[in-house]
Amino acid sequence: MSQRPWGPPPPGNAPGRAPAGRNPYGYNPYGQAPQGWGGQRGPATNPYGRPGLQPYGQPPRGPAPRGRSPIRALLMTGVVLGLLMVAALAVSNVADGGTSDTAYQNDNYQVPPPDTSPPALPQPETYDEAEQLLVANPFYRQATPTPVRCDADPIDVGDASDSELEEHFSGLMECLVRVWQPPVEGARFQIVRPTVTVYGEEITTRCGKSGVNAFYCGADQQVYYSNLLDDAVPVVATDKWGADVVMAHEFGHALQARTAILISSQALGQQAGDESTELGLSRRLEVQADCLSGMFLRSVSGSLRIEQSDVRGILDVYRAVGDDSVSGDADIVGNHGLARSREYWGQTGLNSGDVSACNTYTAKSNLVR
Questions:
Q1: Which of 338, 174, 158 is nearest to 243 (CA)?
Q2: Which DSSP symbol is given to 32?
Q3: What's the Cα-to-Cα distance from 77 to each of 82, 265, 280, 348, rounded to whole Å?
């Protein structure tokens, strides 16, 4: 089977024990090995159209989350959940480059160092609570600060050494935490700054064994990046923001984990017991991470000096990892979303600072196809 970077976890390894504390699932839900995937790029068109909001204007409010019934029943069965996520992004409208007079937001916040012993991830106690966390999470009621300073430059991942890659990505994680700390903590969750480990062809982590890939591992809440990823997916190297797009998406999964969206989505997918529902929830999870990564780029586009001329290349990174682009099958029903869906949600994030815009769990099914 061909190597496919940024894919979902397989049925995988035997799970480890859960961390201390109440765990309705019975086992460590994040103990499975990641699996990669890849393929050729899809067409450079967006059948969904492009939103046209100003990057720093007042974002529109998303649809109000639907209500739910009171708590029904406690989860009684163990759930074994993997936690590897695809990396891709898109950009629509970007800001002009920042100047010395720019009033950057959240600039006095002291970003903590990478946390190698992070607090346990939050998790729902019932399936009903899990659904509430997907459609009406308090995270959706927050907004990202904009503009935010990010002292980073594009990196040539093909020529950079492992130490240079780790230094660059560690700096990017600092920027990501600076953007996302206010909305995460505003929703009464904890944010964690992950380490970034650069590796070669294969690595064994607490999530199991992975080949050429980029992924977030929920078992240790850290991020991993293969130095061969640019060979597997050339757009990562040919677009100057490609690698940062990848890592902003992976941090999107870290946000989902820290706000209990990730475990809730995967628990409900397994509880449903049918492949169609599980695939649909997986796609909503993945394109939400695309949206969150686009929202990050919106916040830092001024300080990074992302130009309109960069837009098409970043959009191509999204499209390159659509299920149809990867498989070559235009009719595929996959677990990450078609190229057009991934581009649409990346653009949605780029055009809004309101986290509710990324609530893919209340979106129409044709937008998460």
A1: 158
A2: P
A3: 16, 16, 22, 36
Residues 6+ positions from 121 with CB-CB distance below 8 Å: 30, 218, 221, 257, 258, 260, 263
Q: Choose the weakest-confidence range: 92-96, 176-180, 329-333.
A: 92-96
Give me the phi and psi of 216, to 5 degrees please.
-105, 130
* DSSP string for 75-98: --S---------------S-PPPP
Q: Residue 59: pLDDT above 70?
A: no
In a domain, 132, yes or no: yes
- Are 183 and 355 in contact by the 8 Å Cβ rule? The answer is yes
Collapse the DSSP code of 225 into the 3-class scheme (helix H, G, I; strand E, B; otherwise coil) and give the result: strand
Overall pTM surpassing 0.90 (yes/no): no
Confidence at 100, pLDDT banded by 50, 70, 90:
low
The answer to whether position 13 is within a domain reads no
Q: Report if residue 7 sits inside a domain.
A: no
Q: Total structural domains in the chain?
A: 1
The residue ranges of DSSP E strands in the chain, in sequence order, are 196-199, 203-205, 208-210, 214-217, 222-226
Q: Per the structure block, which two tokens stand in for 275?
A: 């492949």
Distance CA 339, CA 341 (A): 5
CA 26 – CA 28 distance, rounded (Å) = 7
Residues in the chain: 369
Q: How far is CA 293 from the centre of its chain?
A: 6
Token readout for 337 is: 């979303």
- CB-based contacts of 6, cutoff 8 Å, min separation 6: 36, 37, 38, 84, 85, 86, 87, 88, 213, 214, 215, 233, 246, 321
Which structure tokens are listed for 356? Answer: 């509710």
Show the domain range for 353: 127-368
Indicate whether 150 belongs to any domain.
Answer: yes
Q: Which two tokens stand for residue 65?
A: 């989350």
